[in-house]
Amino acid sequence: MANAEKTSSGSDIDEKKRKRKLSNRESARRSRLKKQKLMEDTIHEISSLERRIKENSERCRAVKQRLDSVETENAGLRSEKIWLSSYVSDLENMIATTSLTLTQSGGGDCVDDQNANAGIAVGDCRRTPWKLSCGSLQPMASFKT
Predict the structure, then answer these.
(1) 128, 129, 110: which is closest to 119 by C-alpha?
(2) pTM confidence score
(3) H/E run at residue 126
(4) Which of the residues 22, 31, 45, 119 has the least number of beta carbons within 10 Å of its own beta carbon?
């Protein structure tokens, strides 16, 4: 009977070893599948990120081109602003000089271009010098545009 118990307990041990081996194999298989799934997910994420990097690079390039264009336009506008400021200043100087000349010469009444033949006095040329023509107004200097 002792021999039968040994055989019975020996087969129990063999059965436990067999179950453990089977369990280990199944665990290893699950680990391999898990690792494979993780690898596939990582590869998918990498390709997705590479695509996003490419899209963002293209957007960045377009924004840089637009920035260059806007900076060029801005430089042109700044230059034009400087020129226009100078032009306005020259016109203001011309108006001031003309007004001073009119004041010193005693002139002041001007005739509207449309009513020049009728001789209708409009008033002081300083009010709207661009709409009036005065015989007493002579440019003091030549202004180039």
Answers:
(1) 110
(2) 0.45
(3) none
(4) 119
